[in-house]
């Protein structure tokens, strides 16, 4: 524990070892803390708010337990918070993940990773109050309507959760989004999929393994930045629109395991860059 009190120590990186034990109550001088891929355990101390110099906390892939303290929001210089791959849970007093509300005070927060925890809570609509600097969000359990206010997002990963319901209409406002992975959930298409056609900067769109029941919108052919498109394992029907085959720079296309019908047009030969096309089980 004494190593954390070294007054000139600013960066501590001990990732990918076999360290065990608990975190100390505070890190008075540290600015960057990398503890990922170890066997550390115990609760995250609420007194972490006293570590006022912290810019980065990366403690992914450990065995930390208990709720995430709301005092995280008092780390006013925080730029990256990676708590993924632990055993953290939600505060049982509320179905919502209340600590997310507290993070609105972190004006420099750009990256928030929470995936791979049994949080079993709901992302509150207050997620829309997070800093406009937030660029990457990996989190569990729901897509709140207010997500469209996170206009600086370039990465959105909500895959492999128990997401239900439909996409919020405000998702069209994430104009800077480059990577979107909503796969392996239970999302439905109550809101038209053509809303996603507004996301012109998308490089990767993964909606695989959901419950979307719709036809593929023609306007997907306008997403010329797409390199990876996965719509597999849904209930998509009708023939793929010919506009899809005009995505000349697409590298991977997976439309497998749907209800698609019809014939393939000669225009499929436009996809000169493709190295993976899967149309099986239709």
Descriptive report:
The protein is an all-beta fold and 282 residues long. It has one domain (2-238): Leucine-rich repeat, LRR (right-handed beta-alpha superhelix) (Alpha-Beta Horseshoe), CATH 3.80.10. Helices cover 2% and strands 20% of the residues. It has one helix spanning 98-102; strands at residues 11-13, 20-21, 32-34, 39-43, 56-58, 63-67, 80-82, 87-89, 111-113, 136-138, 155-157, 179-181, 204-206, 228-230, 237-238, 252-254, 259-260, 276-278. It has a 12-stranded parallel sheet, with no helix packed on it. The chain is elongated.
List the keywords.
282 residues, mainly beta, Leucine-rich repeat, LRR (right-handed beta-alpha superhelix), twelve-stranded parallel beta sheet, four-stranded parallel beta sheet, 2% helix, elongated
Question: Layout of SSEs?
Answer:
Layout (H helix, E strand, L loop, with lengths): L10 E3 L6 E2 L10 E3 L4 E5 L12 E3 L4 E5 L12 E3 L4 E3 L8 H5 L8 E3 L22 E3 L16 E3 L21 E3 L22 E3 L21 E3 L6 E2 L13 E3 L4 E2 L15 E3 L4
């Amino acid at each position: 524990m004494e190593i954390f009190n070294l007054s000139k120590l600013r960066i501590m990186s001990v990732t990918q070892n076999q360290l065990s034990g608990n975190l100390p109550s505070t890190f008075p001088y540290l600015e960057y803390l990398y503890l990922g891929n170890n066997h550390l355990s115990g609760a995250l101390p609420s007194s972490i708010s006293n570590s006022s110099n912290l810019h980065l906390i990366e403690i992914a892939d450990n065995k930390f337990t208990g709720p995430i303290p709301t005092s995280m929001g008092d780390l006013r210089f925080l730029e990256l918070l990676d708590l993924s791959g632990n055993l953290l849970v939600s505060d049982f007093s509320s179905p919502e993940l209340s600590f997310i509300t507290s993070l609105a005070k972190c004006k420099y927060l750009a990256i928030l990773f929470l995936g791979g925890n049994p949080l079993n809570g709901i992302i509150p609509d207050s997620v829309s109050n997070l800093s406009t600097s937030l660029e990457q969000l990996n989190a569990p359990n729901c897509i709140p309507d207010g997500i469209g206010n996170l206009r600086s997002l370039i990465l959105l990963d909500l895959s492999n959760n128990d997401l239900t319901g439909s996409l919020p209409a405000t998702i069209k406002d994430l104009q800077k989004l480059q990577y979107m992975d909503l796969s392996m959930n239970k999302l439905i298409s109550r809101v038209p999929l053509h809303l996603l056609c507004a996301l012109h900067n998308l490089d990767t769109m993964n909606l695989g393994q959901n419950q979307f029941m719709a036809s593929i919108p023609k306007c997907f052919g306008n997403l010329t930045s797409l390199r990876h498109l996965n719509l597999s394992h849904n209930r998509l029907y009708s023939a793929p629109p010919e506009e899809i085959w005009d995505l000349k720079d697409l590298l991977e296309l997976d439309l497998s395991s749907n209800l698609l019908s019809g014939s393939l047009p000669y225009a499929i030969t436009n996809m000169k860059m493709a190295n993976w096309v899967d149309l099986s089980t239709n």
